[in-house]
Amino acid sequence: MPKAINVKGLHVSYYGKEVLKNVSFSFETGSLIGILGPNGAGKSTLMKAVLGLIPHDGGQITIGDRPLKEIRKRIAYVPQRSNIDWDFPIIVRDTVLLGTYPKLGLFHRPKKADKEWALACLEQVGMEKFANSQIGELSGGQQQRVFLARALAQNAEYFFLDEPFVGIDVGSEEVIINKLRELQKNGKTIFVVHHDLSKVENYFDDLILINKELYGAGPVQHVFQMENMEKAYGMPFAMAGSLGGGV
């Protein structure tokens, strides 16, 4: 089976300060992978570097055994909610419709079929009734579901979600994780920056554990061990359980 992603010797720095040091891992297609680590560990930085959203100082990254630039249209990215301008005047349906644009090509406008597909994606996350609502009027959980619908509209093979469960209601979290599991069963590969240690074993099959450098990458039962967690968090595991967030 081809590897979904290969990262080898990744180094990232900001203004001369190293944020990620010699990070390497690989995962197969059809994996649901959590990216775990304490506050400031570089979790979001790792995701952005893998996606080419920020430069890296060294290392090699391939997705689907191909360079990023050759496969970018097959990747869906859901950023942190704090990085989105929720005051931008756009309705829910049009937000999801943006997910069809990468495959439409330059100067091509969405057709009837694209609009129907966008509505179908909203239905998959239970948000079809809000199609004509302004995105800024929704709750945090509803907004996150809409952005997942936008990712679904891309018909992507690889999904990258940065802290999708932060600041949302329990119902929305359940909808999102169930949808991610469904995507995984259909052969999609999903990376999720995560912070709630109590749900790691229920949510993910594989983990990437980092704090500037890699402390483990592989099946949850191998990585999510007290020794690894204490090294990554720099404190007893019981204390680390209340921490999270990322850079």
Key terms:
247 residues, alpha/beta, Rossmann fold, six-stranded mixed β-sheet, four-stranded antiparallel β-sheet, 26% strand, disordered C terminus, nucleotide-binding, transport, Metal ABC transporter ATP-binding protein, ATP-binding
What does this structure look like?
By secondary structure, the chain is an alpha/beta fold. It has one domain (3-240): Rossmann fold (3-Layer(aba) Sandwich), CATH 3.40.50.300. The chain has helices at residues 43-50, 68-71, 92-97, 101-104, 112-124, 140-153, 170-185, 200-203, 220-223, 226-233, 237-240; strands at 3-14, 17-28, 32-36, 58-63, 66-67, 75-78, 158-162, 189-193, 206-211, 213-219. The strands form two sheets. Strands 6-7-8-3-9-10 form a six-stranded mixed sheet, with helices on both faces. A four-stranded antiparallel sheet has the order 2-1-4-5. Strand 4 (58-63) and strand 5 (66-67) form a beta hairpin. Helix 5 (112-124) crosses helix 6 (140-153) and helix 6 (140-153) runs parallel beside helix 7 (170-185). The protein starts with a strand and ends in a 7-residue tail after the last helix. InterPro entries: AAA+_ATPase (IPR003593), ABC_transporter-like_ATP-bd (IPR003439), ABC_transporter-like_CS (IPR017871), Metal_Ion_Import_ABC (IPR050153), P-loop_NTPase (IPR027417).
